[in-house]
């Protein structure tokens, strides 16, 4: 058939899409959680002190920091309100563990329904292994047209 590179992806097609890897075909919706998520988000490690987390949030002009392990797996989140604790505390001590996440291949209508029902301002997007992809913002989800058009402006 003329293929020069062929790979065996053992976990399967569903995991491929859930990992945010490229897909194509008639059944692939153009807007999925991974295509809408903002990728440039503040991150920190469990051992980072409060001051380091605060600097990350200021650098990104953010209100929420992703707490990651060495494999970029999302372990928790820290909001600006949580930074009001003592400076000698670590991210692990002040974080909220196990935040809500979507997979990159989550269908747009399911994402929109979740935002409409639960009213969050943001939701994390991670691969099936928990690796951080980005952060979905309510305003970005609301800007996307249901028929699949991209938002007018993305950050």
Outline the structure in words.
This protein is of the alpha/beta class. The protein has a single domain, classed as CBS-domain. The protein has helices at 13-18, 33-36, 50-60, 91-94, 108-118, 138-143; strands at residues 43-45, 64-68, 74-79, 96-97, 101-102, 122-126, 132-137. Strands 1-2-3-4 form a four-stranded mixed β-sheet. The longest helix has 11 residues, at 50-60. It is globular and about 60 Å long. It starts with 12 loop residues before the first helix and ends in a 12-residue tail after the last helix.
Q: Estimate the helix proportion, in percent.
A: 25-40%
Radius of gyration: 17 Å
Low-confidence stretches: 148-155
| Sheet with most strands | 4 strands, mixed
Neighbour order of strands in the largest sheet: 1-2-3-4
* Fourth CATH level, the homologous superfamily: CBS-domain
Q: How much strand content do the residues show?
A: 15-25%
Number of domains: 1
Distance between the termini: 41 Å
CATH A-level architecture? Roll
Find the CATH topology: CBS-domain
* Secondary-structure element order, N to C: HHEHEEHEEHEEH
Mean pLDDT across every amino acid position: 83
What overall geometry do the principal axes of the alpha carbons give? globular
DSSP strand count? 7
CATH class: Alpha Beta
Determine the structural class based on helices, strands and strand pairing: alpha/beta
């Amino acid at each position: 058939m003329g293929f020069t590179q062929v790979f065996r992806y053992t976990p399967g097609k569903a995991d491929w899409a859930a990992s945010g890897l490229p897909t194509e075909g008639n059944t692939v919706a153009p807007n999925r959680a991974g295509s809408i998520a903002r990728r440039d988000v503040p991150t920190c490690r469990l051992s980072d002190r409060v001051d380091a987390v605060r600097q990350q949030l200021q650098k990104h002009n953010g209100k929420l920091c992703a707490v990651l392990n060495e494999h970029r797996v999302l372990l928790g989140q820290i909001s600006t309100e949580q930074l009001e604790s003592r400076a000698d505390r670590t991210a692990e001590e002040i974080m909220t563990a196990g935040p809500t996440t979507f997979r990159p291949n989550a269908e747009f209508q399911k994402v929109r329904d979740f935002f409409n029902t639960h009213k969050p301002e943001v939701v994390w997007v991670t691969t099936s292994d928990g690796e951080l992809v980005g952060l979905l913002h309510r305003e970005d989800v609301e800007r996307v047209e249901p028929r699949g058009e991209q938002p007018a402006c993305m950050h």
